[in-house]
């Protein structure tokens, strides 16, 4: 009857990529044949893609409304089409990811505050049509001057303005609820990051939409986008600074493929923002900055998504923190 | 007005879900100290509930050919072999030839094996490094060898050993994360306090799968929907015992009103402690634990993680109000910085 806990299981872990010492306990723990305790998420890359397109749509709607209010018509058009494109792609990705896509409308049976996915469904149900109306209203100049269609031509701009403002009012919820969507799971690296994820996603959404604006809108109207890219980058960097410092469950944000994606996202964000700030005189530089910002958002979303999957697949991330919490509460484990 | 403990803490779930005059909460008490690993529960469950086949080959994890709870296995009998005595005062193999049958390397091999369970994620591979450590480090016995334990190793290398067997099942939590996060209302609370998926509603969004702190619920391939133990809701409605408990030949699986099961379990632990099995402990019976107590709870002979159970699960929705607050703050920040960016001076 001896306690035969192995000592060879002690390995030094927790050197972050930036050389910072992280306090991570040695991964010496019991398990059932090393099998994961949790079921890794069944969500495919559709959902990582949706995190990006949903954020892009939200950012686009905000830019569209900002441009509308400050009298920048080309930027307004770009913002509104970004919002519609983003939300259309989002809807496709979300339905495509379902095990039973033909039953997507079952989401509309209930409204549940305890289910971030239900809340998100209703946010999308409100945002989608508004973004659609705002974008389609941009087509008004293509209509004839007279007749019934002429009336539509005159009515479209005010309707589009109202819809654009309403979409922008819903947009921040669309960009940030996805942080709760991931965090409200048993997936260790997602759940433990719940204070950070909405900020990371909000910043990433603004950066991505600013990027599209920098690529597509004329240089005379993109001054606010340069400031918005900087603001988005700041929100994302400050909000996400604690991801790798979560302790053991922060490890996937710093290491492996998921860690590399997060790092790539930050590098692209820094480069893109810096380029955006000095791109006033160069259309080419603005486009490069925009592409970097969009790519940064994609990398960050896929990185966060992957980090969660990694943490659910390895029993270490489930067992070690829970065992520590339990031992703190009850004293060390009873060994036979 | 929601109950103060609606998201966390002790609660009687059926009245909280709106049932008036609900019957007593029903559950399982699975006493692993008398489990013989016959898997009658797995078979009875499949037969009654028409659960599809999920692979028959042994996985290299002792006599386990199921691996984990999946959409196609609603009971899973876990097997762990340990180089320890059974906890009785007189070691079971004192003076008998026994000993390590195989090396920890086989446990590592076992961790990588798989079986087509017909579900997603089903039975993902484990971590071989963690498997070699399992519960007893390098002395872990692993897969049974071709010979009886100890026959090939000589008298000097012989040690005592024991088998842990446990029939795992959905815990039917008081605070069920799967139910909380389900966006279609497919998962619901029954009048017996159990948690059941309505297969005509589920659209396979997969949220419940990531939310379950025990890794129970899973998605059936081809079908696309999530499936798990219903605690034989149809049988309960007819006043019958769930199939697994009915089939269990040793009463390792006991079914009944939760109050009564908790009393019975406490008495059983006391008996085992008196008989010299100090490691006997209950898992999931405490209404003050992170999920408000489980309707299906266990008597274990080692730490929960040895059986593949989380040592201290907490329902994720406990933190949901804090999460929504953070999201609200982030949303306001997002709106504010946009206003500021557009307010700036025109170039």
Keywords:
heterodimer; A: 336 residues; mainly alpha; Formate dehydrogenase/DMSO reductase fold; disordered N terminus; B: 347 residues; alpha+beta; Alpha-Beta Plaits; 4-stranded mixed beta sheet; 3-stranded antiparallel beta sheet; 14% strand; membrane (chain A); transmembrane helix (chain A)
Question: Layout of helices and strands, plus pairs?
Answer:
The complex is a heterodimer of chains A (336) and B (347).
Chain A: H1 45-69, H2 73-97, H3 116-137, H4 147-183, H5 188-191, H6 197-216, H7 223-240, H8 251-254, H9 256-277, H10 283-313, H11 315-330
Chain B: H1 13-16, E1 26-31, H2 40-49, E2 75-82, H3 104-112, E3 119-120, H4 128-133, E4 162-169, H5 177-181, E5 187-189, E6 195-197, H6 207-211, E7 218-220, E8 226-227, H7 233-237, H8 243-247, E9 253-257, H9 258-274, E10 281-283, E11 296-300, H10 320-343
Parallel strand pairs in B: 1-11
Antiparallel strand pairs in B: 1-9, 2-4, 3-7, 5-6, 7-8, 10-11
Q: Which pair of protein chains has the largest interface, and what are the residue counts? A: A-B, 101 and 105 residues
Question: Any low-confidence stretches of chain A, pLDDT <50, length ≥5?
Answer: 1-25
Top CATH class of chain A: Mainly Alpha
Query: What is the CATH fold-level name of chain B?
Result: Alpha-Beta Plaits
N-C termini distance of chain A:
7 Å
Detail the poorly predicted runs of chain B. Answer: 137-143
Rg calculated over all Cα atoms of chain B: 23 Å
Question: Strand fraction band of chain B?
Answer: 5-15%
Please write the string of helix (H) and strand (E) elements of chain B: HEHEHEHEHEEHEEHHEHEEH
CATH architectural category of chain A = Up-down Bundle
Shape of chain B: globular
Q: Total number of β-strand segments of chain B?
A: 11
Question: What is the name of the CATH superfamily of chain A?
Answer: Formate dehydrogenase/DMSO reductase domain
